[in-house]
């Protein structure tokens, strides 16, 4: 049965917060971003604890979803309806031959990067156009999320227990 690595999900869920501290720092893109969204430093001050906690919870949902994008074995499991006990012998043979194929940081990063380009970018761009936001706003946010989910997907795909973390594909 395909195991969910909750440690990988938890660690990946922290990446948006860490990346946000860097990406939206005033010396990186924070000042430009605040100008593009029409916020001042005064408006940004205040109680952020709840925002950070809820952000981690929402990031865990993203991380959970990224498993399905980056780990092909979940697709194989889906093809049999999620129940290995009712699978045909060909499924067992397939999993024996390809069980951990393409489980690496690089593979997960690649699929997540593609999700950033082909899903995140259009979604942010559509919202930005209707909100009358600039292309600068679109690029800053799209780049942040694309880099962030690229790292998250790499962690999720490359870290599988109990074997450890793999940077390159193991067969």
TrEMBL record:
Protein name as catalogued: DUF1761 domain-containing protein
Coiled coil: none
Keyword check for Membrane: yes
Keywords: Membrane, Transmembrane, Transmembrane helix
Transmembrane intervals: 6-25, 46-69, 109-130, 142-161
Record-linked Pfam families: DUF1761
Protein origin, superkingdom: Bacteria
Native source species: Chryseobacterium geocarposphaerae
